[in-house]
UniProtKB/TrEMBL annotation:
The lineage of its organism: Bacteria, Bacillati, Bacillota, Bacilli, Bacillales. GO terms for biological process: choline transport; glycine betaine transport. This is Glycine betaine/proline transport system substrate-binding protein. It comes from Paraliobacillus ryukyuensis. PANTHER family: GLYCINE BETAINE/PROLINE BETAINE TRANSPORT SYSTEM PERMEASE PROTEIN PROW, GLYCINE BETAINE_PROLINE BETAINE TRANSPORT SYSTEM PERMEASE PROTEIN PROW. Residues 1-21 form the signal peptide. Residues 27-50 are annotated as: Disordered. Residues 32-48 have a biased composition (Low complexity). The keyword Isomerase does not apply. It comes from the Bacteria.
Length: 314
């Protein structure tokens, strides 16, 4: 299990992130959603002749340690028109609050966003085009394990290796959690998707209380997948601990064997620097969800479509 030092310096404030009321859609990875009552798609109010000035040349970000935060810092360097802009980091919850407040008042805002995420169903949003490819194309979420896990816990290794679901599945858990909590939503999903779960556990024998630790980032997406995996592993007899930490700590924990596995890496772009730093020190089990995406996001009522459309600070 991760030591106190890991938990003291690695666990981020995102542990207490709250879910916001929203629906979820399979089309999160598209530039726009299928519509909602929040905001306005006709461009009546919140259009501006100078987006940069209107948002004080600031991008509303999330936690400092997140991969998307690093990519946004890189975007500020790569795009000449972002000269003078800053990324304001805080927490995912704070970003979502700022986004909701801006849309309620039909004001402009630029945020760091990712999908799957329920905010794309809650609001009419779009990704800004990224001509320089800083944020990469569509990504996948992968699974990594410490070296030796297959030999030590072959049953758990098999389940984690087989674990794969769709964005709609993840969004369903996130949506249901708004009415209860992630643990309950994960249990309900497992109970209602026995055919999928049976594919993960096919041929796997039960164990008697073996302990396993899954390390994750504090994003709601990763909390959803970790909690579903926890339910399935516990049904096979494992004693499961979930430890949310900063992404850099997550990779280091698996590489050093302080954690057993993680379903949280976003690849090949978002967590690429951490992956490359520890490559060869962990086992890559491949993707567990495809169709993920990150980038700069704005409400659809804003008259801007590309990062290059944002004006430099005067």
């Amino acid at each position: 299990m991760l030591t106190l030092n890991w938990k003291k310096f690695g666990i981020v404030t995102g542990l207490s992130l709250s879910l916001f009321a929203a629906g979820c859609s399979q089309n999160d990875t598209e530039d726009t959603t299928n519509g909602s009552e929040s905001g306005s798609s006709d461009g009546e109010a919140a259009e501006t002749t100078n987006v940069g000035e209107a948002v004080d040349y600031a991008i509303t970000g999330i936690e400092p340690g997140a991969g998307i935060t690093e990519k946004t810092d890189l975007a500020l360097e790569e795009y000449e028109n972002l000269s003078g802009w800053e990324q304001e980091t805080s927490s995912t919850a704070a970003m979502l609050t700022a986004l909701g407040d801006a849309i309620e008042n039909e004001e402009p805002i630029v945020v760091t966003g990712w999908s799957p995420h329920f905010m794309f169903a809650q609001y009419d949003l779009k990704y800004l085009e990224d001509p320089k490819g800083v944020y990469g194309e569509t990504e996948y979420i992968g699974t990594i394990a410490r070296q030796g896990l297959e030999e030590d816990m072959p049953e758990a290794y098999t389940i984690l290796d087989n674990f794969h679901w769709d964005p709609a599945d993840m969004e369903k858990v996130m949506l249901d959690a708004q009415e209860s909590d992630l643990e309950t939503a994960a249990q309900d999903w497992v109970d209602n998707n026995g055919d999928v779960v049976s594919e993960w556990t096919d041929g796997v024998d039960s164990v008697d209380g073996d302990s396993i630790e899954l390390v994750l980032t504090p994003w709601d997406t990763e909390r959803a997948s970790a909690n579903v995996a926890k339910v399935v592993l516990e049904q096979q007899g494992y004693d499961v601990t979930l430890t949310p930490v900063d992404p850099s700590v997550m990779f280091e924990a698996i590489a050093t064997g302080d954690g057993d596995a993680s379903l949280a890496p976003w690849l090949p772009v978002t967590h690429s620097s951490f992956y490359e730093k520890y490559e060869g020190q962990f086992v890559d089990l491949g993707e567990n969800l495809s169709g993920a995406k990150i980038g700069l996001v704005v409400p659809t009522y804003m008259d801007v479509d590309s990062i290059e459309d944002l004006e430099a600070a005067e």
